[in-house]
Amino acid sequence: MKKYASILAVLVLILGFAAISYSAPAEIPSDTTAVIAKGKTQITLGGELRFRGMYGSNLAVVDDKEAKEGTGTKNGVETGNTSYYDYRVRLNLEAKVSPNTTGYVEIESNRTSDNKSENVNWGSGANGPRGVYGVGNWHDESNLYIRQAWIQYQGSGLLGVPAGVKVGKQLIKLGYGLFFDHTYYGDDAILAFVQPVKELTIAAHTIKFKEGTINYNDDATAYGILAAYAGKGWGLSADITYIDHQQYGNTLSSPSDNTPLHLWNFGLRGNYDDIAGTGLGFRADVEFQTGKVDYPTVDDTKLKGWAALAGLDYKFKSIPLTLTAEYAIGSGDKKEGSNDNKNQAFITALGPEQHYTFVYEYLTPSACNFGSSYSKLNGLCNTQYVKLGGAYDITKDLKAELYGYWLRAHKAVAINGATDASGNALTDKDLGWEVDAKVTYKIDKGLTYWVEGGYFWAGDAYKLGTGGNNRDADDAWAVRHGIQLNF
């Protein structure tokens, strides 16, 4: 905890020294408050405070009886109903040392009960209270972690065109994030980029996912190149990413028994924001994967995943309404029980945020069948959906969104382990339907309140029971409200 207290102390000292060491005004946007450091360095402080309340029903997608018992977890999701409040704190500091050089640091809260999230559950501490009723008044329910810490330099002296490098822990996303989206917590990376012309950016990167033991070949590292062209109202981008995970499986008791994973992902995408001035926009993304899991004593597993997305957005000229139609699909593995030394499921690298639906995949087990269980937060892995809906600005400060989803697995699955009378897996592609809604109200500058929720009608892929004694899973739903201040 002392090291995080030191970070906060540094922020306070910067404010104090800046106030007494430099009095000349700087060019600061009218809606931004900045601190002026010695010389020409400009320091800008910012952050956010977020508080949310959550209630979820049957998020394990079982039946009412099992849900009400709430005896444990299924597919990594707690059975029973879920109810809690949480908070998140983020503080950031940007140091603009010169027109070419910028440093950035962002710290955020951490839930000390399990060190797994920046969202701290209310009343989750273990130490602090005294007295006859020694509950509450917690001292240790949260501490601080570093979310971002990077240096960026860009100029045109060396190559004669704008170029630069960004080094440190940073937020990274490829395209629309179907394959790779690490903008939630960030990665340790080096990014070098150049702009031969104003519209074209070419970049190369290396990302360290895991160091492992420093004297073993057990690292997990990504290498990639990308190019993006931003035209007037349209864009194209492509990238190639190679992940070299040298110790994907097994332990280091014998380094020769390591099981490396070598994965290539190829992405191509494009968008057109306002076709011929009609208000109609189009976007598309395709991803292809190849590679292998290199087992030392048995045949390798070949990786053959893929995904695609296509969407239309129509913005009305006369009213503040946007309608959306979208289709997305990610491949799944072969039928359960078969073994052909191939895994065709689309491999994703994502964060613990909502990827498309509010209930399915974000809060409930999904159809992803790359591993041995159907966990949540796997993106488009073995999932396809059709999305229809829209967003409407009721007033300048009040916005409403409503979307419906038809959900189907690419390959049939038995998410709850249902079997028929012969003991065979009772697989199905029917995942179900979902309706999501959200209302957002801007109370004041930087202050927003919202209510969001979703209702998921579970399909036959969630059937329960074995030996032919099968039953349908009950529906799942969740609602959450929150208030957030950005400054």
From TrEMBL:
The entry's keywords: Signal
Signal peptide range: 1-26
Domain Alginate export positions: 100-468
Protein origin, superkingdom: Bacteria
Listed Pfam families: Alginate_exp
Protein name in the entry: Alginate export domain-containing protein
